[in-house]
Design brief:
292 residues, alpha/beta, Rossmann fold, eight-stranded mixed beta sheet, 9 helices, 8 strands, 47% helix, elongated
Length: 292
Amino acid sequence: MKMPRQLGLIVEGNSTKSVILRYPGLADSIGPIKASALSVAHRVSNFIRAGNPISDYEDLGNCDLVLIRVPDASVPRIVDGLCASSLPMSGISFLLCESWLPSEVLSPLKARGATIATLLAVPAQSSEWFALEGQYTAVKRSKRLLNSVDASTVELRAGTKHLYFAASAFAETLPRALFAAAQRSLRRAGISGNHLYLLLEEMAQNMFRDITRGSRAGWTGPLLDCPEEVARDYLVRLQNTVPDMAQLLSEQLKLAEPFMLQRIQKRSKKSAAAGVKQAPASPQIGGLPNLS
């Protein structure tokens, strides 16, 4: 009788904060657990209350999907260890979990017949999301596993994790400095407490709504609504009163201008092709004072 295929786990490092291992119901599917030592595998098994510790990679032979949850620095050694083993890899998918490393780091396993993918937890308020990137078979198996425990997934094209990295940096990292500057500006304008944070939230939500509607291709807010002569006057006043903030704003506008103009031109071409008249999308930032 043919044995049913199992879910395997290769684990190292601190697993107590692992999103994937703590996800409700997922650990119940885990069978063989391989760690740096059998005692460590026993501890992980006790922690997740599932799985059976194994000593050798060869004991993963009955798995069709193997989760690799290890520190990034350990990945090359784990891959080398798997390649040096006599584990038949054809038919096995390896999923590198909770790592920014691209699926290419598992290429030696792919060369031996395995399929490979990576997984990242996506920050979300309502529920856990996971981003999958890699080969079709590995992604499909991983998605099936996650969907079975009601986890939501998004699929990235293989080899595009760098684009997801850029998106995350643009949406989560870079705005922090800009929102801190906005917060400081509102405080200097006399707004504080709950009103300050509510106003910041409304500004951010308005920007996001505008993007999701696709109603405007160019600049929004004061850069769209404020007359150019007033905008120039405000930037000069800002330079005279808070020069470091003026410098930050000026630099950010000049960095963003080529990208935004490109968006405006693309939208204008589409509208022209459809016979739709376009209103002016924004003032020319190049006409504003150079504060650098």
